[in-house]
Design goal:
Blueprint: H1 8-21, H2 25-36, H3 41-48, H4 52-61, H5 66-76, H6 80-85, E1 99-108, E2 111-121, E3 132-137, E4 140-145, E5 154-160, E6 163-172, E7 176-180, E8 186-189, E9 194-204
Parallel strand pairs: 1-3
Antiparallel strand pairs: 1-2, 3-4, 4-9, 5-6, 5-9, 6-7, 7-8
Domain Bacteriophage CI repressor C-terminal: 101-200
InterPro entries: Lambda_DNA-bd_dom_sf (IPR010982), Phage_CI_C (IPR032499), Phage_CI_N (IPR010744)
Protein name: Phage repressor protein CI
């Protein structure tokens, strides 16, 4: 790659190539460590919520850790370009900065726990969102948006009887809804469901 300023198209192409090649994982993990400011991979395991054996397996296989790159980008604001390829600056300059800060909340046992705000690349946010925020639940990341309207078919961040969760919801006639939860699926009145946000995207760990 020449030293001339990269265009956005160049950025995306090099990131896609890095993912497609599925190699260079060790170097990527080292950059992730640097982005967080950690000196050991054990600290990184704790941050990512993965076992040391999972980390060792990824490191030895040298496969591209796309999920960890995304998480690191969201939590540190480090450039996707730099994390993926080592090219460019760790963080974009103020002039080139394409990230925005959004709220981050974790859901544990149905309880909402506010976390530190995270930075996300504007290119990853769909247009037309009102007030996007990030949810973490069982090692799964959800991009959600505030919502003020009727509950319709889709995935929702909801609260029932003071228990918060992310569920797929179907709207029925007569103000009834079905809450999908495997064998524990059930129907109730739409008025029994408090809508906390609409789910836009979902990212989950494979391992």
């Amino acid at each position: 790659m020449s030293t001339q300023k990269l265009t956005k198209q160049d950025d995306f192409s090099s990131i896609r190539d890095a993912i497609a090649n599925n190699r260079g994982g060790r170097e990527v993990i080292e950059r992730i460590l640097k982005a967080y400011g950690f000196s050991t991979r054990i600290s990184l395991c704790k941050q990512l919520g993965v076992s040391q054996s999972t980390m060792a397996n990824r490191y030895s296989r040298d496969t591209f850790p796309a999920d960890w790159v995304i998480v690191c980008h969201l939590e540190t604001g480090a450039s996707l370009q730099w994390l993926s390829t080592g090219q460019g600056a760790v963080h974009a300059s103020n002039e080139e900065k394409q990230t925005v800060s959004i709220k981050h909340i974790d859901i544990t046992n149905g309880i909402i726990n506010p976390k530190s705000d995270v930075f996300i690349d504007k290119a990853l946010l769909p247009e037309g969102l009102n007030a996007p925020f990030l949810l973490t639940l069982d090692k799964t990341f959800f991009l959600a948006d505030s919502y003020d309207g009727e509950l319709v078919d889709g995935y929702w961040f909801i609260e029932i009887d003071r228990i918060s969760s992310v569920r797929e919801v179907y709207r029925f006639p007569g103000g009834r809804v079905r809450i999908e939860n495997g064998k524990a699926s059930f129907e109730c009145n739409a008025s029994d469901v408090k809508v906390l946000g609409k789910i836009i995207t979902k990212t989950e760990f494979i391992i």
